[in-house]
């Protein structure tokens, strides 16, 4: 039995066509700025996001940390929601790398409310850290793939400008947000000083993210990338995968969203199960009341469906649809999950 892997949209494998594009990539030394395929990827993504420049980096975590390191100085503070990726899943990078602390705010599905953000901003005084950045995550991972309303992003951008702050957008799944909402990438990104997008999630590339913004910010981020060991050499092989993904895999993201909605219907019908959030994009969060998510995912794996204990509560399982899972496999996953629960 072949497992149906719904642990993450990072488990996708390069398609045959993507591998061919990688093999044919023109390359150079990117640390010297001489890889033409990397340069093309950076320019392509920057144009899509409406920004001056882009920087190709190995991972979304590095993109987040480079952005926040660029926009802050030691002793500063970043306002973000309490479940933000940059403080939940990045190994304490804000503190360890930049000497910066978060100002976390509880927000429904991780979508910050301008009034709550403004109330959390520090007065300017020697006693307090300096608030420098408002950080948003679109779509929001722990919010179950929630999409930021454009008006909310614009309001937070206006709030940042009012107080002399920067807005940073962790857009690891911004492609999904755009596909689900119909809002362009550039419109979502416009209020942000810096914005990152991931190539290795919904788009199915094997690695990489791109951080975009003004040329001076991107130049600073490039220097910090070198400091962290993120400067790759003939990285055009990976950049070619990203370019192929942007050209060929963006329009099919709505298929992942439809598959996730169907999976949500199937799992919500299982005994003792209910959806924690509406299924807006490709993430499905399921509560199995009174049961251990860690034990359940072992049972599901034995039945041929891979999911993850989400971690924010002991009975919550996360499933994510992606490029390598078809509509037929979603139906089969529903049958297997039902069998694992004796339904």
Number of domains: 2
The CATH homologous superfamily of the largest domain is named Type I PLP-dependent aspartate aminotransferase-like (Major domain)
Helix content: 40-55%
Q: Regarding CATH, which class of the largest domain?
A: Alpha Beta
Based on helices, strands and strand pairing, what is the structural class?
Answer: alpha/beta
The CA-CA distance between the termini, in Å, is 20 Å
Going by CATH, the architecture of the largest domain would be 3-Layer(aba) Sandwich
Count every beta strand, where a strand is a DSSP E run of 2 or more residues: 13
Named CATH topology of the largest domain: Aspartate Aminotransferase, domain 2
How much strand content do the residues show? 15-25%
Strand and helix order: EHHEHEHHEHEHEHHEEHHHEEHEEEH
Task: Please provide a brief summary of the model.
The protein has about 350 residues and is of the alpha/beta class. The chain contains 14 helices and 13 strands.
List its traits.
alpha/beta; 13 strands; 343 residues; Aspartate Aminotransferase, domain 1; 4-stranded antiparallel β-sheet; 2 domains
Can you put this structure into words, describing what you see?
This protein has helices at about 15-25, 35-50, 60-70, 85-90, 95-100, 115-120, 150-160, 175-180, 185-190, 215-225, 235-250, 255-270, 295-300, 325-340; strands spanning about 5, 55, 75-80, 100-105, 130-135, 165-170, 195-200, 210-215, 275, 285-290, 305, 310, 315-320. With about 350 residues, the chain is of the alpha/beta class. Helix 1 crosses helix 11 (about 235-250) and helix 3 crosses helix 10. The mean pLDDT is about 95. The strands form three sheets. It has a seven-stranded mixed sheet, with helices on both faces. The chain has two domains: about 15-250, Type I PLP-dependent aspartate aminotransferase-like (Major domain) (Aspartate Aminotransferase, domain 2), CATH 3.40.640.10; about 250-340, Alpha-Beta Complex (Aspartate Aminotransferase, domain 1), CATH 3.90.1150.10. Strand 12 and strand 13 (about 315-320) form a beta hairpin. The radius of gyration is 20 Å and the shape is globular. The longest helix has 16 residues, at about 255-270.
